[in-house]
Amino acid sequence: MRIITEPEIYIVGRQSIDQEAVSRFLADHETEWETDAERGSELIVELAGRICYLSFGSKQFRKTNASYIGNLIGQGHGSVLEHAVWDLLITGVSRSFTHELVRHRAGTGISQLSQRYVDESTADFVEPGIIAGDPELHATWLAAIERAHESYTTLVETLAAKVQAEHPDLGRTARMKMAREAARSVLPNATETKLMFSANARALRWIITLRGGEGAEPEIRRFAVKLARIMRDEAPTLFGDIEIVTLPDGSEGARVGQYKV
Length: 261
Ligand SMILES: Cc1cc2nc3c(=O)[nH]c(=O)nc-3n(C[C@H](O)[C@H](O)[C@H](O)COP(=O)(O)OP(=O)(O)OC[C@H]3O[C@@H](n4cnc5c(N)ncnc54)[C@H](O)[C@@H]3O)c2cc1C
What we know:
two-stranded parallel ribbon, single chain
């Protein structure tokens, strides 16, 4: 059993552009367009914005991608930001964290580890920083985790035997699912989980805004700050207005320049 205090974010998918299709579109419409966008996400947003007014042609070359997107964000044209999508694999987070993250419904796609199918007898646990930093609190927390974990393991074994006796026709997968789905009720919120979280730029900005703020719970705020740093590097023109700030309690938060686009 590992005790985890830091979330991990792996960006496993990001926006890419089919340049050939873009060139074919421009040729079919007897126009031209150049952009200094260096990343697919930034290019797709500019392209989507320009489609709205068919603003292609040589005189458009003067505007940089940064100023084009800055203008979109400044004017609150957030829907154009929905075309840029990322796929994040998130690990080292607790079930209470994911309960909060999955409340973000708009512009997201979610696939999370199933506690009905996956054996949690080797689960890891996420410890809140305020507890981890105090030896007495840590000992109380660890004892509770160990007790819950032990109960889970005992319940799975006993339930699996019970289901086998009562439903001898069931295969192992179905039998273990019945045992685990009941036994998991004793697992704590701290149980580590993993999920694939896909989201567009507009949704990610909103998640960072709400979850990076002072009122957010510390685990999800830590995640939001990490995400903000990653996204600023991923696409500076889409996330460059996000600042990492020090909150009154000394921890880090994220503040978005343009509140809601
Ligand atoms: C500090 C903090 C404390 C919280 N405490 C609680 C709590 O005690 N209890 C609780 O239940 N939740 C709580 N939440 C969760 C909160 O209520 C939201 O569910 C969550 O933040 C998701 O944000 P969102 O509603 O903006 O949804 P998102 O899915 O992120 O949607 C983004 C935006 O899309 C629009 N939108 C999305 N869905 C709809 C819709 N169906 N109809 C119209 N417009 C829509 C809205 O403009 C919305 O803001 C808390 C959140 C924070 C940040």
